[in-house]
Amino acid sequence: MDEFKGVTVVRKANVYFEGKVTSRTILFEDGSKKTLGIMLPGEYEFNTEYKELMEILSGELEVLIGGNSEWKAIKGGESFEVPEKSKFRMNVMKVTDYCCSFLK
């Protein structure tokens, strides 16, 4: 899907890691939520409340999810899921454009 229709966009940006990761929240009529963002090269760790689907629109990174010991390479056009109430680490190699869906 290249665009979302009938949504509300939260104007205030989500800014993490001194501006190296930013996103905007998109709210849908059915109550679902997504964020659209950009990550600059670097290493980041996030905690999840809900299950998340991370769609990588462009860029290149490696991800380490939960207690796994093996990094997984991800590039533009690919995605990965993160379980609820867990954490994941990302090593971003190239500027990365992403869409994160919060799944309940």
From TrEMBL:
A Gene Ontology cellular-component term: cytosol
Protein name: Pyrimidine/purine nucleoside phosphorylase
Keywords: Glycosyltransferase, Transferase
Listed SUPFAM superfamilies: RmlC-like cupins
Lineage: Bacteria, Pseudomonadati, Nitrospirota, Nitrospiria, Nitrospirales
Enzyme Commission number, as recorded: 2.4.2.1, 2.4.2.2
Claim: Transferase is one of the keywords in the record: yes
Family designation: Belongs to the nucleoside phosphorylase PpnP family.
HAMAP family in UniProt: Nucleos_phosphorylase_PpnP
InterPro entries: Ppnp, RmlC-like_jellyroll, RmlC_Cupin_sf
Keyword Transferase: yes
Catalytic activity field: xanthosine + phosphate = alpha-D-ribose 1-phosphate + xanthine; guanosine + phosphate = alpha-D-ribose 1-phosphate + guanine; cytidine + phosphate = cytosine + alpha-D-ribose 1-phosphate; inosine + phosphate = alpha-D-ribose 1-phosphate + hypoxanthine
Species of provenance: Candidatus Sulfobium mesophilum
Pfam entry (one): Ppnp
Function: Catalyzes the phosphorolysis of diverse nucleosides, yielding D-ribose 1-phosphate and the respective free bases. Can use uridine, adenosine, guanosine, cytidine, thymidine, inosine and xanthosine as substrates. Also catalyzes the reverse reactions.
Molecular function terms, GO-annotated: guanosine phosphorylase activity; purine-nucleoside phosphorylase activity; thymidine phosphorylase activity; uridine phosphorylase activity
